[in-house]
């Protein structure tokens, strides 16, 4: 029973970051119809920025975190502006392939810049875990969870209660009508891609210090984000949030009770179950966001 | 005229080992040929059915593992008390099972992911490849995990006039791969010009319309996936018995990316596209290596090239050249007409 509780707690902590990754990806897909293969690289970028600022320049951990997210937003905006802007009318396969090209180039650029050796990043949290009854959790994981929840709440607020969010929702529902109503679609796309990228970079900046930073770390993160997005239904933010926690729980239980070697296969198993029994995703009634 | 030219081309390709004796060059040609077969199989899905399989290396790897395992034999405990034992079988048997097992997995993946349209097939195929890699790493009893399957026997065939022959040397492997490539090419050509092929193109161009004239879209998509997977499995089986060692790294994503780049650059949905793209990207790494360029830089070049091709030659090299050739000919005809 204690073991089960511990797994549940671990899943809760992990689920926050999975949800963060999934929301960014699902937003970009929902609004822009782009399957964003650079998502994992933005995640890795966030982690490497933490490494740069904390380990190489000795900056304060929290300042570095903010900087990493800001730079992630900037990189996302740059990718959208340079690569996707001209392809707005192109079919989904073309943009997907362009993003795959960008993914390969970015990942190898990371390897070139920081070598293939994994980098560990110091964190300022006490090493002793927080013990609650029979279960325990590291302070760094608690911090990650709290920040992830705050960012998710912030994204919800942005989409549901601001003018920009309203424009995003309108673009999601009908791009052409939104454009006729005077919404600048280009700006909305840049903002969406920058926001999604920022969320991915934030997830990387949060988890980098918990694990280590290495060039291919983004591949696994992207695979999980895709699983989360399919679980919730493509383009569904609530679905992605729920999906993140479900994936984390499935992985924890799978690793704990089946075999730790197949931990990363749980996402695929869930995808198959979803496609067989409820292909539109767990939460979806109709495709919508917010 | 056209068939004569093609025959001449193929004859030239077959004659290469007669005058080119450098084993390293032949080795590169063999590996490139294997990848061209894999790229042709991907083209069937990506080019004709319009479905991007980003886990295509999974079928390649399954073909390699299945073929190697059948020819090596295995002894696996599936559940307590249930033991599956297979004695080593002849290599051609192994290759055949590589093709069949890959096709079966293709059926499963197609059946699952074509329940929904859109990006689902991409994502399912990519995570399928990752799961296959995890299985290859973790199921040590069957696959030897990271220790890899070693000493895979090369193909032994009874040839008319020669008798039992073992494919040890490079030239004979080259001829083997080239023959498989030619057969695959003919098969794909027949397939895309058949009723099934026309149905595929119809559904790529306009799915609702295809459905409205009575084409069972999902059935044809699954059928295409099976054919494509089986062909990729054949390439994997060739690879296993040529390299003679298979480890979980055959499932690495970069191999899928290589195939995708080959198809896109050459021209998806054209018969010659994967061959042109395959030759370029099969031989390019060797050129870059000769220039002492680091692998990371090579991959950055690949990524950037892919983006540039999509921007400036969205249809690929083969259609672009064809268009240029036709324009030249019609220009020449116009000049002749005016003088």
What would you say this structure looks like, in words?
- The complex is a heterodimer of chains A (290) and B (339).
- Chain A is mainly α and 290 residues long.
- Chain A has a single domain (2-112, 133-277), classed as Orthogonal Bundle (ABC transporter involved in vitamin B12 uptake, BtuC), CATH 1.10.3470.
- In chain A, 72% of the residues lie in helices and 3% in strands.
- Chain A has a two-stranded antiparallel ribbon. A two-stranded antiparallel ribbon of chain A has the order 2-3.
- The longest helix of chain A is centred in the N-terminal third of the chain and has 31 residues, at 2-32.
- The mean pLDDT of chain A is 87.
- Chain B is mainly α.
- Chain B has one domain.
- Chain B has helices spanning 2-19, 23-48, 56-72, 91-113, 120-138, 140-143, 170-192, 195-205, 207-212, 217-243, 253-266, 273-290, 295-312, 317-338, and strands spanning 74-79, 82-86, 156-159, 163-166.
- In chain B, the strands form two sheets. Chain B has a two-stranded antiparallel ribbon.
- In chain B, a hairpin with a 3-residue loop joins β3 and β4 (163-166).
- Chain B is globular.
- In chain B, 46% of the residues are buried.
- The A-B interface holds A 29, 35, 83, 86, 92-94, 96-98, 100-109, 111-112, 219, 223, 226-227, 229-230, 234, 259, 261-262, 264-265, 267-268, 271-272, 275-276, 279-280 and B 50, 52, 54, 112-113, 115-116, 118-120, 122-124, 126-128, 130-131, 134-135, 137-138, 253, 257, 260, 264, 294, 296-297, 299-300, 302-307, 310-311, 314.
């Amino acid at each position: 029973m204690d073991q089960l509780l511990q797994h549940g707690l671990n899943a809760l902590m992990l689920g926050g970051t999975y949800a963060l990754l999934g929301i960014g990806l699902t937003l970009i897909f929902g609004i822009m119809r782009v399957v964003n293969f650079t998502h994992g690289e933005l995640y890795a970028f966030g982690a490497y920025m933490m490494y740069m600022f904390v380990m190489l320049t000795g900056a304060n951990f929290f300042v570095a975190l903010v900087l990493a997210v800001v730079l992630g937003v900037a990189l996302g905006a740059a990718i959208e502006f340079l690569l996707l802007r001209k392809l707005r009318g192109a079919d989904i396969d073309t943009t997907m392939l362009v993003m795959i090209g960008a993914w390969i180039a970015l990942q190898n650029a990371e390897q070139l810049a920081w070598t293939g050796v994994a980098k560990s990043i110091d964190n300022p949290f006490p090493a002793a875990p927080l013990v609650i009854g029979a279960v325990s959790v590291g302070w760094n994981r608690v911090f990650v969870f709290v920040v992830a929840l705050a960012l998710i709440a912030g994204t919800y607020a942005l989409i549901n209660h601001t003018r920009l969010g309203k424009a995003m929702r309108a673009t999601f529902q009908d791009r052409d009508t939104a454009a006729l109503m005077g919404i600048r679609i280009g700006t909305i796309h840049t903002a969406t891609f920058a926001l999604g990228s920022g969320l991915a970079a934030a997830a990387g900046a949060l988890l980098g210090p918990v694990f280590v930073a290495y060039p291919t770390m983004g591949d696994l993160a992207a695979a999980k984000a895709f699983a989360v997005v399919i679980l919730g239904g493509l383009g569904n933010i609530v679905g992605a949030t729920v999906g993140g926690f479900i994936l984390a729980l499935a992985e924890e239980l799978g690793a704990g009770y089946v075999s730790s070697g197949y931990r990363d296969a749980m996402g695929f198993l869930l995808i198959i179950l979803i496609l067989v029994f409820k292909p539109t995703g767990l939460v979806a009634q109709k495709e919508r966001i917010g | 005229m056209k068939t004569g030219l093609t025959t001449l081309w193929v004859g030239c390709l077959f004659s290469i080992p007669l005058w080119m004796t450098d084993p390293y060059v032949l080795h590169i040609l063999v590996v490139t040929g294997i990848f061209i077969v894999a790229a042709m199989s991907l083209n069937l899905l990506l080019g004709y059915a319009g479905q991007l399989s980003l886990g295509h290396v999974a079928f390649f790897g399954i073909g390699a593992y299945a073929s190697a395992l059948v020819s090596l034999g295995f002894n696996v405990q599936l559940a307590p008390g249930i033991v599956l034992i297979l004695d080593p079988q002849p290599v051609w048997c192994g290759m055949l099972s590589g093709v069949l097992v890959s096709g079966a997995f293709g059926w499963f993946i197609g059946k699952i992911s074509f329940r929904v349209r859109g990006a689902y097939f991409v994502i399912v195929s990519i995570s399928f490849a990752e799961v296959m890699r995890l299985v290859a790493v973790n199921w040590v009893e069957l696959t030897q995990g990271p220790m890899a399957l070693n000493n895979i026997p090369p193909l032994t065939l009874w040839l008319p006039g020669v008798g039992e022959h073992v494919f040890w040397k490079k030239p004979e492997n080259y001829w083997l791969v080239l023959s498989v490539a030619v057969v695959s090419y003919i098969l794909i050509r027949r397939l895309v010009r058949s009723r099934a092929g026309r149905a595929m193109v119809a559904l790529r161009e306009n799915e609702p319309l295809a459905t409205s004239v009575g084409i069972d879209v999902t059935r044809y998509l699954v059928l295409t996936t099976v054919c494509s997977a089986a062909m990729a499995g054949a390439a994997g089986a060739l690879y296993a018995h040529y390299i003679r060692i298979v480890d979980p790294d055959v499932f690495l994503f970069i191999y899928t990316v290589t195939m995708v780049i080959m198809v896109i650059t050459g021209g998806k949905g054209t018969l010659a596209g994967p061959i042109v793209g395959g030759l370029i990207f099969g031989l390019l790494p060797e050129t870059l290596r000769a220039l002492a360029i680091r692998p990371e830089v090579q991959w950055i070049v690949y990524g950037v090239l892919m983006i540039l091709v999509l921007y400036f030659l969205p249809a690929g090299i083969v259609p672009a050249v064809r268009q240029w050739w036709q324009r030249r000919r019609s220009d020449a005809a116009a000049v002749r007409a005016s003088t």
